[in-house]
Design a protein that fits this description.
- The complex is a heterodimer of chains A (336) and B (285).
- Chain A has 336 residues and is of the alpha/beta class.
- Chain A is 39% helix and 13% strand.
- Chain A has 12 helices and 9 strands.
- A 7-stranded parallel β-sheet of chain A has the order 3-2-1-4-5-7-8, with helices on both faces.
- In chain A, β1, α2 and β2 form a beta-alpha-beta unit.
- In chain A, α4 packs parallel to α5.
- The longest helix of chain A has 22 residues.
- Chain A is globular and about 55 Å long.
- Chain B has 285 residues and is an alpha+beta fold.
- Chain B has 12 helices and 5 strands.
- In chain B, β3 and β4 form a beta hairpin.
- Chain B starts with a helix and ends in a 9-residue tail after the last helix.
- Classes of the chains: A alpha/beta (336), B alpha+beta (285).
């Protein structure tokens, strides 16, 4: 199986990266083959999920308006969630739907109207869930966002974001994500479908530095996002309707709050030596962060264990320096 | 007419509108509001410009202006008036149970401002209008208008049932028409047609039909909205049928599924039972 690392890497800061990565991939490979539809499967997260699922023996159907990269074992159905598009029959024979399709900030900048957001993100989800119900889909995992919590603190203690944190949406994207969660709640209560929202941290990739350092706050590595989806797909029971997901360190609540006032101190407690090694490599750490996503619930309920935390980021960067044939940024499981 | 057509007809471009707004009220973000925000204006319409200013320097009621052949009215929106806005619509999503008990009730001026931001016909957007959008949660105006219409529909239906039981023909008939109108407003809101001025209801309906936002054509709407009380037939049936259909459509598209929707639908069903049972059998007076 190409997802197995050829040579497991060393233990540092509790990160046994190959084994950690492989634990959920192995779980997936051992599971009864599922028929999975990924709606919005041509995007970054969807493409990774399609690859992992297909390579571990599951049947994948990608539904998207954009053509994905061709992949053996992945069926593509070109469709859109916009109003007027029929989804009938598109989910026939599917066990699990992973719903990732949505308009987001870049679409607004690109000329989509705010009403398009509601039509696609909420109206589209509503139509999709109805089709899930008609087709007898057993499980739905849908992407939400930690942006529904609003901004971080401007100074002082960092805001800790978990499932109990009050929502403070700020824009149309946030509103549509909360509305999506309401739709999932309704389906979960009314039907046998296990419908779960994953409030993903930020996994937009503006630059390598931003992508990796944001893991100190709300950042989420795309492979950790994949892991969270897989955990929900495979769990016997999914106790909560929504989970926060990030590539966060395992910190106490107090430590998370102190990320707003003493970030280097907290890092030194959690990962001794990391601050110094970042300094040696010229990696500038932020002085503070205004918010910290706490993934305790999904860890406890579903066994999620992020393997691409800031610790992995530094190790990957150091390994890349040692072996210049390996690209620093490539978040490939087998490269762990 | 489409607003782009109107501006061309009047010989007005967007830069000229921004210019007149800023000459009238000073530095501001500028949006088109009113009927033109919904593409339902006419050649006799004024251009309503919503001018978002920071503080108190701008005139309270600027004099009307002209640009080309267009009359222009500038409406000043002070950002300071919307800081910590107590009627933010976000509660409709973040706490629908609370919203069910106490629905936000923004003033008419605030609602017109929210409608403007919701329609988003921005000529000169910026941080001032962004702040008001954020404080009011104007992007949820369709939820608010939809919910308010549903609540009004339910209240009217309840009144009509009482009037029917008392034989108050004319009041019941007028109330039934209101039930249909409010139900139509709820259905329109689901599609984003949320102009708070009811004089545009039919124009909005026409646009919604063209846009595929209503499951009717005009021939299907008109008998329910304009019942003929002096004819031989039953004037109630079409109005009640329209109300049922519009509420079902609204319920299908409104998220969250506010409990008021179920209440309104149940009341309209009760009303329908009266009509189906042969009521009103009372005598017109």
């Amino acid at each position: 199986m190409p997802w197995v690392a050829a040579s497991p890497t060393r233990d540092v800061w509790g990160v046994t990266s190959a084994q950690v990565d492989l634990e959920w991939v192995t779980l997936l490979a051992a599971a009864v083959p599922l028929r999975v539809a990924i709606v919005g499967g041509s995007g970054r997260l969807g493409s990774w999920l399609a690859t992992v699922l297909a390579e571990t023996g599951h049947r994948v159907r990608v539904l998207d308006s954009v053509v994905p990269a061709p992949k053996r074992g992945v069926e593509f159905v070109q469709t859109a969630l916009a109003r007027g598009t029929s989804l009938e029959g598109r989910l026939d024979g599917i066990d699990c739907v992973i719903h990732l399709a949505a308009l987001h900030g870049a679409h607004l900048a690109g000329g989509h109207s705010r009403q398009d957001f509601w039509q696609v993100n909420v109206g589209g989800t509503s139509r999709l869930l109805r089709e899930c119900e008609r087709a007898g889909v057993a499980r739905v995992v849908a992407a939400s966002s930690t942006s529904v919590y609003g901004a971080g603190s401007p100074a002082g203690a960092a805001r800790v974001l978990d499932e109990e944190t009050p929502l403070a949406p700020e824009d149309i994207y946030d509103f549509t994500k909360i509305a999506t969660e309401r739709l999932l709640d309704e389906v979960r209560l009314r039907t046998p479908i296990v419908a779960t929202a994953l409030r993903f941290g930020r996994f937009f990739y503006p630059s390598e530095h931003d992508y990796q350092l944001r893991k100190l706050s709300t950042g989420l590595d795309v492979l950790d996002a994949c892991q969270a989806v897989v955990r929900v797909m495979l769990a016997d029971t999914v106790p909560r309707p929504a989970y926060c997901v990030a590539s966060d360190l395992s910190l106490s609540r107090g430590q998370r709050e102190r990320l707003g006032t003493d970030l280097p101190g907290v890092l030194e407690e959690a990962l001794p030596g990391l601050v110094g090694r970042c300094a040696e490599r010229g990696i500038p750490l932020p002085e503070r962060v205004g918010k910290s996503v706490d993934t305790s619930a999904i860890r406890a309920d579903l066994g999620y264990e992020p393997c691409r935390t800031i610790a992995w980021s530094l190790l990957a960067a150091e390994r890349a320096t040692l072996d210049r044939r390996a690209p620093v940024a490539a978040p490939v499981t087998r490269a762990c | 007419m489409l607003t782009t057509q109107l501006l061309e007809f009047w010989g007005v471009d967007e830069a000229a509108l921004v210019d007149v707004a800023r000459r009238t009220v000073g530095p501001c973000d500028v949006y088109i509001g009113g009927s033109l925000a919904d593409d339902v204006g006419t050649i006799t319409s004024d251009v309503d410009l919503y001018c978002f200013v920071a503080g108190g320097e701008a005139p309270v009621a600027p004099a009307p202006a002209r640009v080309g052949a267009a009359g222009v009215e500038c409406h000043v929106v002070r950002v300071a008036d919307y800081s910590d806005f107590p009627e933010s619509l976000s509660v409709l999503l973040t706490d629908p149970d609370r919203a069910a008990l106490r629905t936000p009730y923004p003033s008419p001026a605030a609602l017109r401002c929210m409608h403007t931001l919701y329609r988003d016909r921005a000529l000169a957007p910026g941080p001032l209008s962004d702040a008001v959008r954020r404080e009011t949660a104007a992007d949820l105006t369709h939820l608010y208008v939809g919910l308010r219409s549903v609540i009004s529909c339910a209240a009217s239906a309840e009144d009509v049932i009482a009037m029917l039981s008392m034989g108050e023909y004319w009041t019941a008939l007028y109330g039934t028409r209101l039930v249909a109108e409010f139900a139509l407003d709820a259905a329109l809101a689901v599609g984003g047609h949320v102009n708070p001025n009811t004089k545009w209801r039919m124009s909005l309906a026409e646009r919604a039909i063209v846009a595929g936002d209503l499951p009717y054509d005009m021939d299907g709407l008109v008998p329910g909205l304009f019942p003929s009380p002096l004819g031989d037939g039953d004037p109630f049936t079409a109005a009640v049928a329209l109300a049922r259909g519009c509420l079902a459509y609204a319920a299908d598209g409104m998220v969250p599924a506010f409990p008021q929707l179920a209440t309104a639908r149940a009341l309209v069903e009760s009303l329908a039972e009266w009509v189906d049972a042969g009521a009103p059998t009372f005598v017109r007076t």
